[in-house]
Design brief:
The complex is a heterodimer of chains A (581) and B (581). By secondary structure, chain A is of the alpha+beta class. Chain A folds into three domains: 50-144 and 244-370 and 437-454, Aminopeptidase; 162-240 and 389-425, no CATH class; 459-580, Immunoglobulins (Immunoglobulin-like, Sandwich). Chain A has helices at 2-11, 37-50, 100-114, 119-126, 138-146, 271-281, 313-329, 338-342, 349-355, 369-373, 388-401, 438-454, 491-496, and strands at 13-14, 23-24, 55-62, 68-74, 87-92, 129-133, 185-194, 196-198, 206-208, 218-225, 286-295, 298-301, 334-337, 361-367, 406-414, 418-425, 459-461, 465-470, 473-482, 502-507, 511-519, 528-530, 537-540, 549-558, 562-568, 575-580. In chain A, the strands form six sheets. Chain A has an eight-stranded mixed beta sheet, with helices on both faces. In chain A, strands 17, 18, 19, 21, 22 and 24 form a six-stranded antiparallel beta sheet that branches. In chain A, strand 3 (55-62) and strand 4 (68-74) form a beta hairpin. Chain A is elongated. Among the domains of chain B are: 31-142 and 237-362 and 447-467, Aminopeptidase (3-Layer(aba) Sandwich), CATH 3.40.630; 473-579, Immunoglobulins (Immunoglobulin-like, Sandwich), CATH 2.60.40.10. Chain B is elongated and about 100 Å long. Chain B starts with 5 loop residues before the first helix and ends with a strand. Classes of the chains: A alpha+beta (581), B alpha+beta (581). Chains A and B meet through loops of A and helix 6 of B.
Chain lengths: 581, 581
């Protein structure tokens, strides 16, 4: 038996193409856990050790608490330099509590490396470079893992901020009164004088007593999150650690604090955002952007605020195609426009990716209750909200986790409220999946980002047609094709003059270029947008569209027997073709 | 070049030589034009001679590597809430000379503090932060050769979208040491001669049958051979377009993101780090004292600040400051400069600080002519009235001079300033009919040397007066009333006797000015029975604005009770209540 097992293991191939038999990963990573900051980097270090020729990292700065802002670069140098290939950016965890984005970024790296020999993966890796940043906000993540929190706290970075404007910084955070490592809720039993009563079927749940004319009152009051009035100002938990939002800090459509809470005094104010902003602005080949957040089941695109108007029509078609594709890959996700379908966000990251950098950009909100129940929200009680839905959530928690997600109410003697009870859901429920669903969620999301990457522009040149026009003059007709959904220049980049325009050239020894231009009509060769100057070097602001073609005609003369045509585009690999005249 | 008319070369040269002689040999003018190196030496001298009252504080390093420094000047106790005044010069390249104006404030203050009451009060009650040269590149541009008034000092973009960056910028084509204006005879030109003075060009008005004759450009070649002159300069970003309020994404002069320029960020960070700053005074292109600022009151609390104006209450107070400025003999120029993306707009609209912006000098448009008008350098008749009276109303059929024509008239009367360079045809290597001339670089922004001392005195007087207008929160009364049984009622009145309220309307709206923090301090033996432990007062009007607060305490002695108020920039106080009679 043992011998048989050993023989089977020997026969297993390295790699992990997502199918369950016949192969095993080179680097085993347990995808049923969430990892703190050092563990994420440790897993990446194992990948770097296994594939040193493909994966390396650069530190682009330090967080407020001095943690590395680390970008992993995944590319195959044997197929060209990083600068020559279109670049896909994938990040996670800008909100410190929205941790699973980090695992999704790790999964993307792991999947590409494990499967690098698979033909489709190889094709992608041959023609693209990935910049992977699992932890945009490593301090927020570390605080969320290591300190008492709820599912929504530690969203911020940790630079001290005066949220209550009293001149003192971070002096009244929530307090883990019961010492269980989680910030849960406080409630007090006030028989006949309260606003809530216990649910008759589940005494852990408090339900509000409806307004009535018969004097019926509840027996309980809710007192909010665990905490004290640390600074003696008469308020509880009003100035927590940090207190800002690094997904409101980006330059496009940025608005100050009174319009957009958490935005800071100016764009890219915090070192994390600043470092990433500068890094991305330095990447002229950036051609796709994906950011992972944690709750809602959404594939989001901008605009973030109504005054922007709608995105360019040609680009919306590309967004729609990828977004709909995502809806197929990600059950219970909806493809949405941020301001219209969610809420207004000024200065968001993915919106900057498109509006500022001119790149097709998405934000995914990864987890939602539908994935847990396997049923659409319609027809089931929504989970996680007030009242009855909490009962549903507890029922599932009892069955699928044997109640591990909920800390039952326990008595506590509070200095202000007296005898109270403390209890509620742990921080690692509600916005992150239970352990048994983590791999599915990160895999589907990572693969959505890779689908995005596969749609970065790729230019090929059809064999040119050469027509003798007599008198020693020849017409050279060339078709430059973009095989992918994302254009070489988005309409946004073209209209706002972001980056460099595409350049199309012809040259040859003894070749003299008399005229040249972009053809406006496939059937009428004389319909040309003639270049005013430098006909051998045609410049196009709009580039080659989504799975589009750009037709060029050059009129040439001279002694050349052959010539070379080239397309030089920032967001695609350079293409060139030598042909006979 | 030899074709340049000799008299012109002599007059230009002799003028600058005279200025140099004045600066170096005879008594130096009180407010010279300083290079960055000269300014740095002067600042060090001021610090050395200040007996510890002045200190040099570094704000940051400019893109050029030069230091941006502030002089901190303060004497006397460092009481909490001591207000700061920030004075900023030479942010705009055009007003590089104002670095010496700000430097002069330091010298004047230190010299007069012994004898002058206003100066002594300024020194002892406020902290002055003087940033003479917020944009070191401005100072360098002013003293560099060839002399050119180029506002952009930050990185260039590909203005002409040919895929090449900064390849065709302004140039001293005629080699006379100045990059001036160039007019090119061209049927596509938009400009025609002003009928009132043919040396001045005005935009042709097609609706009145006018046809453009000239292209008006900065002196340049067509370095890249594309038919356009100087259309892709190496620098594009203007530091004072790089601040967040009204920042225009993708505009060539605005920068990659708001505060991307190190000079802008240094200034922004300084302001954020110094909540004691109550007032900012800038010398630049913008002016908000010449006329009452436009106002608009209907912005919602969470909507972006309207570009059309500031709240009416703020506008009225600025108008009052404007009246006081005029009472001091101040004659700042009406500003038609855009405020989008400027430091001044950010300070006012997002930081909510009181901002006094002065364009300290402009060419008078309606000055009474001198008694003996000098002949214009090129022999043209100066268009001036012979009498000393203001110009009589013109008849409708006489051409009305444009503002530039009026400016030229002013320079005609002052040939020693060499403010206008007569149009002179040159042999241009790239264009047919080219004339070089026009207003000399910096001429429209630099006051004649002999008037600068007067400007310095007036602006210093304004600064001294402004210090007395800043809000100051005092406890006017703190009364104790015996309620019996050991209970006392404490009544306190906060009052602000100064002109300006605790926070501007914009400061309150943006929540960027911290409220005053009022507390009842109780020593052991005294307990609070009723009233707020801490009250945050965000709004305290000026000119005697009051706020009443009350508490009930149980205490054996009023010595155990103090009412205290703390502010960031409007003083602090702590008083023992006195028994009410």
């Amino acid at each position: 038996m043992i011998q048989f097992l050993a023989a089977t293991l020997m026969a297993l191939q390295g790699g992990f193409p997502g199918t369950p038999t016949g192969s095993r990963p080179t680097v085993e990573i347990a995808w049923n856990r969430l990892y703190d900051e050092p563990e994420i980097h440790a897993h990446f270090a194992r990948l770097e050790a296994a594939w040193p020729e493909l994966l390396r990292h650069v530190d682009i700065g330090s967080s407020v608490e001095g943690r590395a802002l680390r970008v992993y670069v995944l590319s195959d140098p044997s197929t060209g330099t990083d600068q020559d290939k279109p670049l896909m950016w994938i990040d996670g965890n800008v909100h410190g509590n929205e941790v699973q984005g980090g695992e999704a970024v790790l999964y993307a790296a792991w999947y590409l490396l494990e499967n690098r020999a698979e033909p489709q993966v190889k094709e992608l890796l041959d023609g693209a470079v990935f910049h992977l940043m699992p932890l945009v906000n490593p301090d927020g993540r570390a605080h969320w893992f290591q300190r008492a929190h709820d599912s929504s706290s530690s969203r911020t970075g940790v630079q001290p901020t005066d949220e209550d404007r009293d001149g003192r910084l971070d002096e009244d955070p929530p307090n883990d009164l019961d010492g269980d490592g989680h910030i849960t809720q406080m409630r007090k039993h006030v028989p006949g004088r309260g606003t809530h009563r216990q649910d008759p079927d589940d005494p852990r749940v408090l339900v509000p007593v409806p307004a009535n004319d018969v004097g019926r009152r509840g027996d309980w009051v809710l007192l909010g999150e665990e905490g004290l009035d640390d600074d003696g100002d008469g308020r509880v938990n009003e100035d927590d650690v940090g207190g800002y939002d690094m997904n409101r800090a980006w330059p496009s459509l940025w608005e100050p604090e009174h319009v957009q809470r958490g935005a800071g005094p100016y764009p890219l104010y915090w070192p994390e955002a600043r470092a990433i902003g500068e890094h991305l602005l330095g990447l002229s080949n950036l051609a796709g952007l994906q950011s992972f957040h944690n709750a809602g089941g959404m594939i989001l695109r901008g605009p973030g605020a109504e005054p922007f108007g709608e995105y360019e029509r040609e680009d919306v078609r590309v967004f729609d195609e990828l977004g709909r594709s995502g809806e197929r890959m990600l059950p219970f996700y909806r493809y949405m426009v941020i301001w219209k379908d969610l809420y207004t966000v000024w200065g968001g990251f993915a919106t900057w990716g498109y509006e500022g950098l001119g790149v097709i950009s998405f934000t995914n909100e990864m987890w939602n209750s539908e994935q847990l129940t396997g049923r659409p929200r319609e027809g089931q009680a929504a989970l996680g909200g007030p009242g009855g839905s909490q009962k549903e959530r507890l029922a599932l928690d009892d069955r699928l986790l044997f109640g591990a997600g909920f800390h039952d109410w326990k008595p506590y003697d509070h200095p202000l409220y007296g005898a109270i009870e403390i209890g509620g859901f742990r921080k690692d429920t509600g916005r992150v999946p239970p352990s048994f669903m983590i791999e599915e969620m990160v895999a589907r999301n990572a693969l959505f980002a890779l689908e995005h990457a596969r749609n970065m522009p790729a230019v090929v040149i059809d064999p040119p047609e050469v027509t003798d026009l007599g008198g020693g003059v020849k017409a050279v007709d060339v078709v430059f094709r973009n095989l992918r959904s994302i254009p070489t220049r988005t309409a946004r980049a073209a209209s706002k003059r972001i980056g460099s325009p595409d350049v199309f050239t012809i040259e040859g020894q003894g070749l003299s270029v008399l005229a040249g231009g972009f053809r406006r009509d496939r059937w009428r060769p004389e319909a040309l947008e003639l270049a005013e100057r430098e006909p051998e070097r045609l410049v196009s602001e709009r580039g080659i569209g989504s799975r589009g073609e750009l037709r060029v005609r050059w009129l040439v003369t001279g002694s050349a027997r052959s010539a070379v045509v080239r397309c030089v585009a920032e967001k695609a690999r350079d293409a060139q073709l030598t042909f006979d005249l | 070049m030899s074709w340049l008319p000799t008299p012109l070369r002599l007059s230009a040269a002799s003028c600058s030589l005279a200025a140099l002689a004045g600066a170096q040999v005879t008594s130096a003018p009180r407010v010279p034009v300083l290079s960055h190196a000269e300014l740095t030496r002067e600042l060090e001298q001021v610090v050395r001679g200040s007996e510890g009252v002045a200190a040099l504080v570094n704000l940051g390093i400019a893109r050029s590597g030069r230091r941006i420094d502030a002089l901190r000047i303060a004497r006397g106790p460092e009481a909490a809430g001591r207000p700061g005044i920030l004075v900023v010069g030479a942010l705009d390249v055009e007003l590089a000379w104002t670095s010496a104006l700000v430097l002069d404030h330091a010298k004047t203050l230190l010299a007069r503090a012994a004898t002058d009451e206003a100066a002594r009060a300024l020194l002892e009650t406020t902290t002055l932060w003087l940033v003479p040269c917020a944009n070191p590149e401005a100072a360098e541009r002013r003293s560099a050769a060839p002399r050119a008034q180029l506002a952009a000092t930050g990185p260039g973009v590909d203005d002409d979208r040919d895929g090449r960056n900064g390849e065709d910028g302004p140039a001293d084509v005629d080699g006379d040491g100045v990059i001036g204006w160039m007019r090119v005879l061209d049927p596509r030109g938009e400009w025609v001669e002003d009928p009132a003075d043919a040396r001045v060009l005005v935009k042709a008005d097609g609706t009145k049958g006018q046809r453009g004759r000239w292209k008006l450009l900065l002196e340049a070649r067509d370095a890249d051979g594309d038919g356009e002159a100087g259309e892709d300069p190496p620098d594009d970003v203007v530091v004072n377009r790089n601040f967040p309020q009204g920042w225009t994404e993708h505009a060539r002069e605005a920068g990659r993101y708001a505060t991307a320029e190190p000079e802008a960020r240094a200034l922004a960070d300084f302001v954020v780090r110094h909540p004691e700053i109550a007032l900012v005074v800038t010398y630049g292109l913008l002016d908000n004292l010449a006329e009452k600022p436009k106002s608009k009151d209907d912005a919602g609390r969470r909507s972006p600040n309207p570009a059309e104006g500031i709240p009416g209450a703020d506008a009225s107070l600025l108008a009052e400051i404007g009246r006081r400025w005029k009472a001091l003999g101040g004659t700042s120029g009406k500003s038609d400069a855009l405020d989008a993306g400027t430091f001044q707009a950010w300070i006012q609209a997002q930081r909510g600080l009181w901002t006094v912006n002065l364009a300290p000098w402009s060419v008078p448009l309606d000055e009474k002519p001198r008694e003996q008008p000098a002949e214009a350098p090129d022999g043209a008749q100066p268009a001036q009235q012979p009498s000393g009276k203001p110009a009589a109303p013109r008849k409708d059929d006489e051409p009305k001079p444009s503002d530039d024509a009026k400016r030229l008239r002013w320079f005609d009367a002052r040939p020693e300033l060499a403010g206008f360079r007569p149009w002179t045809r040159i042999e241009h290597p790239d264009f047919e009919h080219v004339e070089v001339g026009g207003f000399a670089p910096f001429a429209l922004h630099e006051p004649p040397p002999e008037t600068r001392a007067e400007i310095a005195d007036r602006t210093f007087a304004l600064l001294s007066e402004l210090a007395l207008l800043l809000p100051r929160v005092e406890i006017a009364q703190a009364r104790a009333t015996d309620l019996g049984a050991g209970l006392w009622r404490i009544d306190a009145v906060l009052v602000n006797e100064r002109l300006l309220p605790l926070a501007s309307a914009l400061g309150r709206r943006t929540r960027s000015v911290r409220p005053a923090r009022v507390a009842l301090e109780l020593s052991a033996g005294a307990t609070l029975v009723a009233g707020p432990r801490q009250e945050l007062v965000a709004d305290l009007a000026g000119s005697g604005g009051r706020r009443e607060l009350a508490w009930i305490v149980r205490t054996s002695s009023l010595d155990l009770v103090h009412v205290s108020v703390e502010t960031d920039s409007a003083g602090s106080a702590r008083v023992r209540p006195e028994v009410q009679r």
